[in-house]
Amino acid sequence: MLQQSHNGFRIVAQVEYRHTSAFLSTAKNIISNKCHNCACLLRRLLRYHRKYPNREYVIQKALSYNKTIAQEITTDSVDSSRKILLLEARAAHLYWEAVETLIYSNDDAWKRTYPHAKDPYNIAFNIGYTFLARKIREEIVFSKLMPEIGIFHIERNNHDPLVYDIMELYRQPVVDSVVVALFTKKKQAHNALSAVDIARLIKKLEQQWEMPVMYNGKCFPIREMVSFELHHFAICVEQAVP
To answer: Which residue of 23, 42, 141, 149 could cross-link 63, Cys pair, CB 3.0 to 4.6 Å?
Structure first.
């Protein structure tokens, strides 16, 4: 009974959290870190594509902008979720513009599209994000948080808002880094994903999910870092609501 009462308070706290002063800080932190992760991945990719001037320019442009936005979002001038999402949208556009230059496709105008994309590249990204969403949801439920109650995403098409809020922090390190690497190593176009390709992709994603990263001065798998962050978020939610 005590546990049920505690969980009930946490659910109410999640609902009320959007109306607290801490909400904006959390939203800014998520998107700032997402832009930082985009910049980190682009910086790594830039090392391997400097000999291609056109690619280098596009990657460097996206890298610089995402670094700038990661800083700008944390300033007092960004005082609403609308401003946060407008800045994030521009940064994301440039990020995908850079990624698109790296994909070897029979169609020179390959674009990141969703849903219902039929080309192997978009399918691979979709598989990766579905994988990540399931992993994040498991951690959210384990943390006794409601995945249906988000921060800045809203519920649509059976997508749990909080899952997609938290995913913003891990798309690049868990999914994009894997998919881009798989499709740029062979330097050739792919017409379809075979069962072997999909199995290899999922195996790589599982490995990335367990990849050790530095967190608060210690080394933990990404999976554990997500768990720690959600536990911290749950405490912040409860403390922010009277």
So the answer is: 42
Average pLDDT, stretch 35-56?
87
Domain assignment of residue 76, given as a range:
2-240
Q: How far apart are CA 237 and CA 10, in angstroms?
A: 8
- Axis-axis angle for helices 21-46, 53-72 (nearest 10): 160
Q: CA-CA distances (angstroms) from residue 170 to 38, 51, 106, 131, 213?
A: 10, 29, 29, 12, 12
Q: What CATH number does the domain containing 8 carry? A: 1.20.120.920
- The answer to whether residue 34 scores a pLDDT higher than 80 is yes
In angstroms, the Cα distances linking 121 to 11, 115, 124, 178, 211 are 38, 13, 5, 12, 23
d(CA 146, CA 143): 9
End-to-end CA distance of the chain: 22
Cβ-contact 58, 98 below 8 angstroms: yes
What is the total count of domains within the chain?
1
Question: Does the predicted model carry a pTM greater than 0.85?
Answer: yes
Mean pLDDT estimate for the chain: 87
Cis peptide before 173, with omega less than 30 degrees from 0? Answer: no
